[in-house]
Amino acid sequence: xxxxxxCKMMPHPPLRFFFFLxxxxxxxxxxxxxxxxxxxxxxxxxxxxxxxxPSDRHWYSSLLPSTSSCLHHYQAxxxxxxxxxxxxxxxxxxxxxxxxxxxxxxxxxxxxxxxPSFLGLDLRGSRLSAVSHRGSAAVIxxxxxxxxxxxxxxxxxxxGPPPRRWRGECEEAPGFNRSHCNRKLVGARYFSAxxxxxxxxxxxxxxxxxRDHDGHGTHVASIAAGASVAGAGFEGxxxxxxxxxxxxxxxxxxxxxxxxxxxxxxxxxxxEKAVSDGVDVISLSIGSSSPAPFYHLDPLAVAxxxxxxxxxxxxxxxxxxxxxxxxxxxxxxxxxxxxAGTIDRYFPAVVRLxxxxxxxxxxxxxxPRERRRRHLVHLFSVGRINxxxxxxxxxxxxxxxxxxxxxxxxARIEIGAALKRAGAVGTVVYHGDVxxxxxxxxxxxxxxxxxxxxxxxxxEAYIRTARNPTAVISSEGTExxxxxxxxxASFSARGPNPSVPCVMKPDxxxxxxxxxxxxxDAIGPSGWAADIRRPGFSVMSGxxxxxxxxxxxxxxxxxxxxxxxxxxxxxxxxTTAAASPPVGDEAGEGGPLAAxxxxxxxxxAVDPGLVYDLRYDDYVGLLCGLNYTAKSIRILTGKAAxxxxxxxxxxxxxxxxxxxxxxxxxxxSKGELVFHRRLKRVDGGGPxxxxxxxxxxPDGYAAxxxxxxxxxxxxxxxxxxxxxxxxxxxxxxxxxxxHWWKGGSLTWREAEGKHAVRSPIVVLFPRxxxxxx
Length: 773
What we know:
By secondary structure, this protein is an alpha/beta fold. The protein has 19 helices and 40 strands.
């Protein structure tokens, strides 16, 4: 069935309807019976607090039954609370005057070094490197699994005191005390009330400390802001100097993720505290693939929007649901959403068959140049293994190398461990139709080579035809392959934006494959309990690793351009991103709905020439254009909103975002779409500057820019407006037959030749979209 991807939402029914809709669709699934408790989050209008109550907390307590108490009080960014209740109790509270929105708590999960050099930050004369070496007052807040503070990536050697405005602290907890913080790690807090209530695990020491028992948080913090560490690497791979994007930026940790994931109620509390503490950047390498249907009903969307209004830059991972269209997570327009790309470092490995044929792959689970010779046998009828608890006991596994196919959501490292327990001495894994040629180097506990599906077919054919199939698997260490990267990783989630298709997501691409970062000492790099390895660094892949690259660069830009707000920073990152020649794609599709505006280029971003300066009114106009009511806008923004005035489509198409996205059906029905935009000069002022529009319209479409030339006087901060008229080209019908999108671009080129401000143009074809899973 086709979906309509016009950039419109249905008119809002009364807010009470959505209250019951959310309760019945989500809470009833979470609570099998009416008496079962689950956590609910309540947003309130404090101006309606009854006069007898001296404080909001007293009011909230009065709303709760005697058997419940508040888990979190929200007061910095939004007003409200969370509590563990039955659905009927939540419904009763939702009927009180002053309670404006209710939502069940939900679970988020983490989206699970060469990259500074790959991004040009080690080049002589680098402006951003100069900023990083002088030191930065920027503080990055990591909402994640905590930190292992003893790692050398978090030393404060050479750093002065934290910024005077900093109000954070190191919370004392089991295994974590104030002495673990320093002038680098300036804050460490934990938030577990929502998780403890959801999973009934209160009282555990692990829930009362910012110490990282998972590794994910330590890894991402070191990618963004780790200090320089010589001789880093993992098990003989990727040896060299490890450093974060902003090695002198400060780190503040807000642990919200535990064994089963991260509860939204805890995440919102952490974001509130991070903003109150004074962070400049928030890095979110976690997310959900099932956001609330409207932003004002999503407490996480409300918290992040209000954080951005406070001047905080928010970077978030796009998710690992690719290459399915529409799989992108963390897609609100005020968040900078990051996809994952490859870098030019590779860990080659070889499967050498007994007949002399070689299949190339990748591996970090064998020491470089180590070889394993055993019989190679396909695991009976098990081509695809979906779970580690699959029955793997077989006389054909013991003492041999096993070829197997990874299922769509299979935990590959756990399955490798299960194969090892069953007697395998090595494995060769491929991803099949899920990701035919995708290969990830992962820290398996059994020697493992990842190969593409074509290579797997060669091995499979050899096993079937040879009387005594044998093989040697070996690692060839670390290689640099300039020119092959970047490419979009096949797992990186894709657009279009499932909530607001006319706002492009992801925003841009950053390194996210085979990234080296610091690691916890609490568990081995495989995450398997029996893994006794405790390396100081590990290798991980995911949009989780891409996100902190942008978080770190945003901190550098904040230091280099202290007057810029979060949306100027995002515009600079997007309009200077590398998109020509087109960024490749492991999955073959490519384009702006995979790579966003292009691949991160930090050095260009520090001097973009012009920026699309989003303002609060732009967001209100967008929300009005999406049929939000004044009441729902007030819930989202926390500010009084006048009723939306009829403005045609200008609210939607006038949203000053650095990309132009429209649905083919909408262009066809209206004849043309008109985008309204404005650009602000940010080059410091000086002589007059002239820019000329260079348009590459999507195939089958015409794009007209009015005016074609922009003139800026010598004043820094001057803004100039323009519009783009997008229509079907004569005789084309505007339809495509192979792709579900068509792309082009608008580039404003400075007459003097220094600056080029590029934005994608995208036309969506709904009939080529697939349903989200």
